[in-house]
Amino acid sequence: MIDNYGRQVHYLRLSVTELCNLRCRYCMPAEGVCKKPHGAMLTQEEMLRAVEVAASLGIRKLRITGGEPLVKRNILSICEQAAAVEGIEELCLTTNGILLPQLAKPLRRAGVQRLNLSLDTLNAEKYAHITRLGTLQQALDGLHAALEAGFEKVKINAVLMGGFNDDEIPALADLTRQYPVDVRFIELMPLLQGDAFTPDAYIPCDRVLQALPEAAAQQSDGGVARLYRLPDAQGNIGLISPISQHFCHRCNRIRLTADGWLKPCLHSGEEFLIKGLDKDEMAEMFRRAILAKPACHGELSAHSPSRAGRTMNRIGG
Ligand code: SAM
Ligand code: SF4
Question: Residue 226 half-sphere exposure, CB side, CA atoms within 13 Å?
Answer without folding.
Answer: 17
